[in-house]
Amino acid sequence: MKIKGIKHVFFDLDHTLWDFDKNSALAFKKIFELHNVDVDLKTFAEVYEPINLNYWKLYREEQVDKTSLRYGRLKDTFDSLDYDVSDALINQLSEDYITYLTTFNHLFEGTIDVLEYLKLHYDLHIITNGFEEAQLKKMNASKITSYFKTITNSEMAGVKKPNPIIFNLALKVANAKPEESIMIGDNYEADILGAINVGLDVLYFNYHNEEPDEDIKLIDALIDVKKYL
After folding, report:
1. Which of 6, 142, 182, 197 is the most buried (most CB within 10 A)?
2. What is the rounded CA–CA span in Å between residue 151 and residue 190?
C-alpha cells in the first residue's frame, strides 16, 4: 500500500532512528563508574525512564526549561531510589551524561537500510525536540547526518513538537508542502498528532506499543517503512 505524492520525509531522531535507550544506558554506566555512584543500572533505568519521559512532556508543554529537565530527572530518580547524592554531583552527572551520551552511536535495526532506500526517491529531513548541540553530535557519531537535507530543532523554532510552529518552520526550511510530506516518529502526541495538525501524512513507529486511533498507519520496525514509501 504505497503512499502516493510524497516528496519529503521528515523523521524524529530519538527513539525513532537513534536508539536512545541503549545509548543512554551506556552513558549512565560510564558516568556512574567515573563518579563511583553505586546503584544497580537495571533498577536505575526502570525508575529513570518514566521520569525522563514525563520531564520531556513537561518540557514540550513549556512547564520546565532545559536546565530543570536535566537536573530534575536525575534528582527525582535518586530520590525514588532513596540514594543520597549531593546537588553538586547531580549537576556534574547531568553535564557528563550529555557529554558521553553523544559519543555512543547505536541506531535502530534497519536505519541505514531504510535511509539508503529512501534517499533515492525522497528528500529527507529531521524534526527534533532534542537540544541542538546534542542532536548534531548524535547524528555525526552515528554517521547519518549526510542523509538529511535539513535539520529543524525546537531551539531554532522556539517551541517544541507538537506545536505547529516547529512543523511549519521545518516545512519552510525544507521548501516542502504539507500535502507532499510525511512524518515518521515514535511519540504519538508530539510527532503524529502534531504532524497531522499541520496537514502532513504520518507513519507511527510504535516503539512504545501503544494503541493509537485505527486510521493511523503503524510500523513496528523501521524496515516496514518500505511498505508505504
Report:
1. 182
2. 17
Burial of residue 38, with CB atoms counted within 10 A of its CB: 0-12 exposed, 13-18 middle, 19 or more buried: exposed
CATH class entry, domain 20-101? mainly alpha
Burial of 199 (0-12, 13-18, 19+ CB in 10 A): middle
Q: Is the pTM of this model over 0.85?
A: yes
For 8-19+107-227, CATH gives 3.40.50.1000
Percent of the chain with pLDDT over 90: 88
Name the residue ranges covered by the structural domains of the chain: 8-19+107-227, 20-101
Q: What percent of the chain has pLDDT over 70?
A: 100
Burial (0-12, 13-18, 19+ Cβ within 10 Å), 30: middle
Look up residue 98 and give its three cell numbers: 550529555
Give the sign of the dihedral formed by CA 100, CA 105, CA 109, CA 112. Answer: positive
